[in-house]
Amino acid sequence: MAKPKLYIIHGWTYTTDPWEKTLASLKKQGLEVEMLHVPGLTAPSKKVWTIGEYVRWADRHIPDGAVALGHSNGGRILLNLCTEKPNKLAHLILLDAAGVYEVSSKRDVTRSISKKLGFLKKVPGAEKVWHKLTGASDYARAPKNMKVTLSNMLESDKELDLTRVKVPTSILWGEADTITPVHQAEKMHQKIAHSTLEVFPDWTHAPYISHPLELAKMIFKTYKTPPKIQDPAEVTQAANISASMTLKKAQGPVIPSTTERSATLAFKKKAKGPQATDAAGRSAALALSARHKSSKANSRSEQESPSRVRVAELAEVEYEKLDADDFAAMPERPREIISTASVPKKKHRLGGKKKRVAQSKSTKKASKSIKKVTKSESLEPSKSVAKGAKE
């Protein structure tokens, strides 16, 4: 079985010696490492390189499906490789990588100083002073062809679209990095979809120099645990399942409501009439119907009371005017006063307009006769009046 292998593209440096401790530690942990020598830096080349040529070079030396680590400019090369060939790598590890374009006034000043004080490089013992004044920049130390190459690299960052990187990406960064500040790491992490970011407080731009053993442990750990990629369909499915489970969880025991009825049920009830199982109450229509029936029953009971029946009988009797002799022949009885307050206001129909007129005339005659009665006299029962009327 083949050992796990890691491919590394170093940064802008002319020697890989500072990497020795880190590489040795990785080998002890069982990880095979192949350090690629970049043309014009650790491999001889007098030509001017472009980012496209470096991408093709890396594509030839790294097999498909490999795990690769890029430091500084090496990270820039691998990022461009992954944008052109999204399926090239199985896992990308970025260590203080370059690739985020920023306008740098410091770089422009350094270039100006380098041109003016370049003669110090030829003065014995003044080389260190020259490097210190220029900030020991990569540009200042680069040969002529690589100065142009470096300018090409920096300009290429304008065109680099980090959102096109789809490979699982682990980002390792030093918080003490002043060459590629940590905010650039955050920007990479924000734009690269399947990425993780870990920042280490004391690490510089070159942790293989400042923290070689810690770096080796972290690289090995990262190699073993790449970021996971979730398929968009799986994410959607998981979200649907989660929503479904939430709804199921939210459902408790359902208690049927006895206070509300839908419009459809109300109409059905109205059509069928009240049901024995109706414990919720009655609809407005049924309630009004019941009330109407009750009022009719009360009305009938009032009409059928004895006093009202008596008044109704008296209303149908036709009275005539009586003379004094008729009243003298009547036996004496205590006077009875018929109160008109008990007579209902409702008019009783007698069958037609003519009968109503006759009833009205006869009632008036009877009223006139009653007014003539003295206090000592009494009235005969309604039967005697009726007899006199017949005679």
Defining key terms:
alpha/beta, six-stranded parallel β-sheet, 48% helix, globular
Give an account of the 3D structure.
The protein is α/β, with parallel strands linked by helices. Among the domains are: 5-101 and 157-234, Alpha/Beta hydrolase fold, catalytic domain (Rossmann fold); 303-334 and 342-390, no CATH class. The protein contains 17 helices and 6 strands. The chain has helices at 20-28, 51-61, 73-84, 105-116, 127-133, 138-141, 144-156, 182-191, 207-210, 212-224, 232-250, 263-272, 284-303, 306-315, 324-329, 353-371, 382-390, and strands at residues 5-9, 32-36, 66-71, 89-95, 169-174, 195-200. Strands 2-1-3-4-5-6 form a 6-stranded parallel beta sheet, sandwiched between helices. The longest helix is centred in the C-terminal third of the chain and has 20 residues, at 284-303. It is globular. Residues 241-254, 276-285, 345-355 and 373-391 have low confidence and may be disordered.
